[in-house]
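Quick one before lunch.
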Amino acid sequence: MGDRLSTKGVSSVTTDYLGLLGEVPESERALAARARAIVEEALLPRVAGLYDRGEFPLDVIPRLAAAGLLGASIPGIGNASPLAWGLACLELERGDSGLRSFVSVQTCLAMTAIARFGSDAQRQRWLRPLASAEAIGCFALTEPAHGSDPASLETRAFATPSGYRLSGYKRWATNATFAQIAVIWAQTDPAAGARGIRGFLVPIGAPGVEVRPIERKLSMRMSSSAEILLHDVEVPADALLPGTTGLGSALACLNEARYTIVWGAIGAAEVCYEIALEHVKARQQFGRPLAGFQLVQQHLVEMLDRLTAAQLVAHRLARLKQQGTLRHQQVSFAKRHTVSAAQRVAARARALLGAEGILLDRHIIRHLANLETLATYEGTEQIHTLIVGADVTDQPAFR
Ligand code: TGC
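Model of the 3-thiaglutaryl-CoA complex:
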């Protein structure tokens, strides 16, 4: 299998145990099919090398745009259904989480912020270029001292006669090293607390914007992560996203990105399960295939159990989103569920491959490492536990 993992012909047969895909109309599979083609042709043959070098494949971006993946979920741009979008995110993550994260940040964070909270002029200026990849966007909420608690962020937007002066320090912004535009979340009025937080469109090339890549990651190595330092950056009044009304606006964008993580985690889990299953069928020890041992079968069935439960959660989430009744607490529930399931599946798959399981060329260790990021970014597993806990008890326990 080596560096040239082929996913053709195995995924729906071996990982769709309850036949969920059989109920998905062809029209809702087309986007995912295009994503899969890109992954198989343009990513998988070289993914281990890219990951090893910590390099994002910039040359794939035009193909993602041509396939309609950038902005696919944005009304008026892609118009993909939640299910079609989720399945596409699953396929992207089967390649690598860095690819799904690129598409997710561009679409769910940068484009959603503009589509929902931008002025007509901002939408006109940015949405089509972002969908066609003429422009790349990023999103900066987290700060070195404020991750799980963004309400306390310290980046300030001071009103000036011509607009705003932004000063602050952002961290963990995906895509920032090659983006043209950043959605920056800043406090405009500390007395207003979380409701004083507003979003701003800041060109990465503006004087005073400094982007510093975050190096030496051992997870999500194919994704570009960066810090954004704002050294008294002057922006005009129309840099403000006028529809933003507080932290809730930023969190509304995160809901969209969290939805893609729900699906992406399943893609990673599927690949790990498939590779492990193929391996134990082929690998002979003690005179017979590993697959014939009871302990191995127990591992496989528990992996399939978690994977299938995660698929059911994701499909249900898509249905709720389609109906317009999805609550953000349900997204938290699902992110927590599918990422945790994928972590268990990937860890067991790694063990089933023995020493081979730690090789980049066997893919599993890469997904396992990436899943550490999925369990952390856009709300840690613990934060999502507390969001659901508050929902079921009416007792917020964050502070
Ligand atoms: P809280 O008082 O609960 O909420 C403040 C306001 O926001 C509303 N709200 C939401 N609205 C939409 N969607 C959600 N998911 C929402 N959650 C809360 C809420 O109703 C309220 O509205 P209003 O009108 O009453 O003002 O806020 P809190 O300060 O108590 O915090 C709650 C908590 C901890 C759940 C929240 O802060 C949280 O989700 N924390 C995790 C933050 C997080 O996910 N950070 C990661 C950011 S992503 C990033 O920067 C790096 S990844 C992106 C990349 O890869 O580039």
